[in-house]
Design goal:
Length: 305
Amino acid sequence: MVEAVMFWNEPNNRSHWDFELDPEWRAFAEMIKAAAGSVRAMNPRLPRVLGGISPIDPAFVEKMKEHGVLDCVDVVAVHGFPLDWNHWQIYEWPNKIREIQAVTDLPVWVSEVGVSTFGAEEVQDWGLQRTAELLRGRVERVHWYSLYDLPRAWPATTRHREAEGSSYYRHFYLGLLREDGSAKPALARFSDYTPDLGICQWFHYEDHRLDEGVEWLRRLGVRYVRTGLSWADSFRPNAREWFDRQMAALEEFQVTVTFCFTPEHLGVAPHHTSPPQQVELFAEFCAEMVDRYAPGTRELPAPGA
């Protein structure tokens, strides 16, 4: 069942929001406020989450407060990858959470945290243990990223791709399962931390891994899942059929659904990171998805229940 909706993904990261077109995030703020209002109208009890920020930046949260966004959401989410991309050590996780708690009274979720096996698979195994020790019980939701490695034939969703050097290739090694479906060492340990730890798994359009992925989530004892419904994908052929299949497959889990990615033909610039030409169009997409998968007549738990 859908337990929460999240608006966008890493909006303070150049790979996911073009803040050269929107340097003060004013367009982003208007888009999120419109979307939050549309979701509230559809289901006033459904928790609304500000898309996980990366880097973890209290100044960005304060900017969202200044623009009125925090008045329209129920949770602030953060992402952290200290062993791969962030310039801080894994032991700093509690301080990073406190930095955000210092600028907002809203609950803080960790909607993505992970460790790539780019250098060595044993690093991920150790990183999973330390992450669980540092975050379990400290926040209401922790979503481990991810279940599967990204297939090497698929591009990572980032604006600069190979220009990022080795940072780009780390995207492909964050799964507990390799691309061929075989297990990495950390997989055997993951069930030690469920159901406290959930999984963030982006299922791509018509993803061939969906059914097998659901079986793995069951076997690992996962209760909380984060995934996405792409606004850009909604214009593909048979998109609603794919969305229906994805959400039906995940029905038994408590799902945080992320709405993100601008359709090229609706952006100020023709790119998935662009502000939309009309913020109301994103709000309409969010409202349609909530009406379809989390209608207001349905009983839903409060965050943390």
